[in-house]
Amino acid sequence: MTTATAHAPHHTATEHSHAVGCGHVAVPHGDHVDYVHDGHLHRVHNDHYDECEPTDHAECAAHAHAHGEGCGHVAVPHGDHVDYVHDGHRHAAHDGHWDDH
Predict the structure, then answer these.
(1) Nearest to residue 54, comparing CAs of 9, 7, 100, 86?
(2) By the number of CB atoms within 10 A of the CB, which of 12, 58, 62, 85 ranks highest?
(3) Residue 2 has pLDDT above 50, yes or no
(4) Which tens digits make up the pLDDT trace of 54-95?
(5) Between the CA of residue 81 and those of 33, 45, 91, what are the distances in Å?
(6) In which order are the strands placed within the sheet that holds 26-29?
């Protein structure tokens, strides 16, 4: 699994509180939950939210399922592409394979 970027605060918890029912897609990610907000993924960290973006390339080599419209997995807009939530991970198409975000 990829790791998050170095501590990169995005906004404070007082500006907006991400939680169940906040209106943003919640994505399970390892030991925490990311929230999709303005094309970025945020995670709670103390009194603010950090960007939760991969810092390395992690190919999901054993992933034979093709994601796309109607595949049955949650589609999450992520920057210039779409991730798909599958088995507790976000997968993104990359050069003929799927990356594990």
Answers:
(1) 100
(2) 85
(3) no
(4) 666 677 777 677 788 888 888 887 778 888 887 767 777 878
(5) 20, 25, 11
(6) 9-12, 48-51, 40-45, 32-37, 26-29
How many Å apart are CA 24 and CA 71, to the nearest integer?
Answer: 21
pLDDT for residue 8: 56
What number is the average pLDDT over the span 28-49?
79
| CB atoms closer than 10 angstroms to residue 101 | 25
Per-chain mean pLDDT for the chain = 74
Residue 39 burial (C-beta neighbours within 10 Å; 0-12, 13-18, 19+): exposed
- 90 by Cβ neighbours in 10 Å (0-12 / 13-18 / 19+) ranks as buried
Six-digit token pair at 66?
A: 């093709």
- Global pTM exceeds 0.85: no
Strand segments (E) across the chain: 9-12, 26-29, 32-37, 40-45, 48-51, 75-78, 81-86, 89-94, 97-100
